[in-house]
Amino acid sequence: MVRRDAGGDRTTDRAAAGRRLQPALKSDRKGVALMLVLWLVIVLGAIAVGVVAASRSSVDVVSTLRARSLARYAAESGVVAATTRLQQLLRQAETIEEQARVFQRLDQEMAALRERRIGQVWFQVEMLDLNSRIDLNVSDELVLRAFFEGLFGERLGSELLDALQDWKDENDSPRPQGAEAAEYLAAGSVFVPPNRPLQRLDELTRIKGFTDSIANVLAPLVTIRSNGRVNINTAPEPVVAAVTGSTGRSLLGIRDQMGTFGTLNDVRNSLLQGGGTGSGQIGRLQTVPSRVLIVSRGWADGHPLTHEIQAVFDLEGLLDEEGSRLEIHHWVERDL
């Protein structure tokens, strides 16, 4: 006879249940392990992607730095090539008339440098006679008034002049048609007059009344880097008229006939023949430039980055025994 404990059935049932749960527990453990493995794979994959991305970013940074260095050296080479060419041309000029003609045909003389390749880099160069333009910083008010009114009429020209002078002068008292900080703020402008000379020509569009269209008209006629004098041999009609007044058209006609004014005496005599006194006007003129702007841009093959240098040079000793000398007056660089 077999004896059973009162709780025997329950004990047997628990054992049987435990045996049935063991495969399920093992299956759960396998599932957790599989999930951990999957998460580990995902994490390692993310790390790998990050490493690859960081590597690519580093490569891009190195590539950009290399391209920028090459572009900068190319732009500097353009400046050197332009100054060397100009010095060569001026040394070959035996008279002041020949020097003046060099600057009259500056575009043609610099044509070979408009785009040149050196190995894996390129440069483009443009040279400008700054004395063929009106200097907005140092020209006196009479010249500026004549210039603005000649281009835009008496009313608008007077408004532009007042606004420009308020932008530059050191006081906070607005001119009749100008504006100072209070007026700019009341109009909702984010810019106010800095009460100093213009630092860049693109400041013009911040000044009251100077719209984009007006700035575009002014762009080829103005500068902020000359000495205020005007080269009568290269300046266009609006510039000549602003400096010489009613005799400007006569002077341009004589220039067209003569080809070149050699000296200021030639200009003075022409002014006298045209009915002008030639006194106050002659002090604002010259027959060769005293400052030139060289704009040089460089870039490397296969890279979009372009480096630009704008260099203003003073011209001195054009006919002395040592030949022409160029001295840096202003230098600025930027990436485009």
Describe this structure in words.
By secondary structure, this protein is α/β, with parallel strands linked by helices. Helix content is 50%, strand content 15%. It contains ten helices and nine strands. It has helices spanning 8-92, 96-104, 106-109, 141-152, 154-168, 181-186, 212-218, 237-244, 248-258, 264-273, and strands spanning 116-118, 121-129, 134-135, 222-223, 230-231, 285-286, 291-300, 306-316, 325-335. The strands form three sheets. A five-stranded antiparallel beta sheet has the order 1-2-7-8-9. It has a two-stranded parallel ribbon with strand order 3-4. Strand 7 and strand 8 (306-316) form a beta hairpin. The radius of gyration is 37 Å and the shape is flat. The protein starts with 7 loop residues before the first helix and ends with a strand.
